[in-house]
Amino acid sequence: MRSTLRFRQAVSRSVNGVVEKAARCVVPEPEDPRPQSIYSAALEEAHKYKWIESQKSGHDLGDTALKDWFRKYWLPFCRAKRLEHVEGMQKWSEFAETEFGQVFQLIMVDDLLCDRVLDRMEHGCDNLEIINWGLTWGLPMERVIDLLELIDINRARLEPIAITE
């Protein structure tokens, strides 16, 4: 119970502190790297997976291993790339250029709530789970929802590459 109260107080101070810090500090913009393709990066990862799994089994697994990678890892891979994009770490051509680095300034001013939301998303939580977490902890729900809309993790639901032979 005490830790719940401390967390709520920390978030409250964080929300107020973020507004104050943002008002008085100049935060650098994220670097503007060249956009990469999620599809190319995914195919490269799938081929690495194929090589590793083929080595383990002692023979070439072929397209079966590629399909296995896409079945197991495609959605988490896309989620991770979406977070990289909105955090300003890497620009991905499948997401809007205007969305690049949207939460970068919040990260730079140590926004505790933004950090916690991103952390939960990195660990696979979806929007509803984060909303339930916010309600359970008595967090400022308007701000939680604003962050979820800003990050828009559902944009990471891209269609995978069709592996054909």
Describe this structure in words.
The protein is mostly helical and 165 residues long. It has one domain. The protein is 64% helix and 0% strand. The chain has seven helices and no strands. The protein has helices spanning 2-24, 38-57, 63-87, 104-108, 112-122, 127-137, 141-151. Helix 2 (38-57) crosses helix 3 and helix 6 packs antiparallel against helix 7. The longest helix is centred in the middle third of the chain and has 25 residues, at 63-87. The model has no long low-confidence stretch (mean pLDDT 88).
Poorly predicted residue ranges: none
Distance between the termini: 58 Å
The shape, in one word, is: elongated
pLDDT averaged over residues: 88
Number of helices: 7
Q: How many distinct folded domains? A: 1
What string, H for helix and E for strand, traces the elements in order?
Answer: HHHHHHH
Percentage of β-strand residues? under 5%
Gyration radius (Cα, Å) is 19 Å
Number of beta-strand segments: 0
Helix content: 55-70%
Reported for the largest beta sheet, the result is: none
- Helix and strand composition category: mainly alpha
In a nutshell, what does this entry contain?
This protein is an all-alpha fold and 165 residues long. It has one domain (2-156).
Question: How does the SSE layout of this entry go?
Answer:
Layout: H1 2-24, H2 38-57, H3 63-87, H4 104-108, H5 112-122, H6 127-137, H7 141-151
Helix pairs in contact: 2-3, 6-7
